[in-house]
Write a structure and sequence with these properties.
- With 217 residues, the chain is α+β, with helices and mostly antiparallel strands.
- It has helices at residues 23-32, 69-75, 118-132, 145-149, 209-212; strands spanning 19-20, 35-42, 45-56, 59-64, 79-92, 100-111, 113-114, 152-157, 160-166, 184-187.
- The chain has one domain (1-88, 99-169): Pnp Oxidase, Chain A.
- Strands 1, 2, 3, 4, 5, 6, 7, 8, 9 and 10 form a ten-stranded antiparallel beta sheet that branches.
- The longest helix is centred in the middle third of the chain and has 15 residues, at 118-132.
- It is globular and about 65 Å long.
- It starts with 18 loop residues before the first strand and ends in a 5-residue tail after the last helix.
């Protein structure tokens, strides 16, 4: 693929021809994903936690309780590693050894900064909601001051990130090509089902269009 690694630790070494350091490619994957795995070192050892996230330009937004040891560590300037992976298909080869997956992934390294300004923090929380369900923040009740103050939001720059993509069919050995075994790809996609109204809904509000027609970018 293209571009130059931003740092030594962000350089893809395993199958480097599948790597890219293009920022727009990273944005596209991050905008489609829903869950980031966030890792850092703590006094009790390494910790990796799945989290919802959002993107604001060249910044990744992470949020949670101020009691979270992972976010507390991030807020203190501990170096973090964040990964987002989209699985596009199962690759079935003729041999068990060459089975694989088609995927798109982003790995981000860096030091996060806590967003202390409450106005900026509120805007970041709106951005997080819009990442998950575009259009929702305009209808849902906004976070009140207690909720905003009680949420820790970290901003992680995308200055050190890499993209890695595998696409296409199986890569079998020449000696295995004549085996009477099916080979190919089982595509995988995320498909939203019909919205399910909450049992305790007290109004006659119908599911909005963004819920009825929900898709990822």
């Amino acid at each position: 693929m293209t571009s130059t690694p931003p740092s030594t630790r962000a350089t893809v070494r395993r199958v480097p021809e599948r790597a890219s350091y293009d920022r727009q490619a990273a944005h596209a994957i991050l905008d489609e994903g829903l869950v980031a795995h966030v890792g850092l070192s703590t006094d009790d050892g390494p910790v990796v936690i799945p989290m919802l996230y959002g993107r604001d330009g060249d910044t990744l937004l992470l949020h949670g309780s101020p009691a979270s040891r992972l976010l507390r560590g991030g807020a203190k300037g501990t170096q973090m590693c964040v990964t987002v992976t989209l699985v596009d298909g199962l690759v079935l080869a003729r041999s068990a050894f060459h089975h694989s997956m088609n995927y798109r992934s982003v790995v981000v390294f860096g030091q996060a900064t806590p967003i202390t300004d409450l106005t900026l923090r509120r805007a970041a929380l709106d951005r997080l909601v819009e990442h998950i369900v575009p259009g929702r923040s305009a209808e849902a009740r906004e976070p009140n001051e207690r909720e905003v103050r009680g949420t820790l939001v970290l901003a992680l720059p995308l200055d050190e990130c890499s993209v890695k993509v595998r696409a296409g069919g199986p890569l079998d050995e020449d000696d295995d090509m004549d085996l009477p075994v099916w080979a190919g790809v089982i595509p995988l996609t995320t498909v939203a089902g019909a919205p399910v109204t909450a049992d305790d809904l007290r109004s006659d509000a119908a599911p909005p269009g963004y819920a009825r027609h929900y898709t990822r970018p």
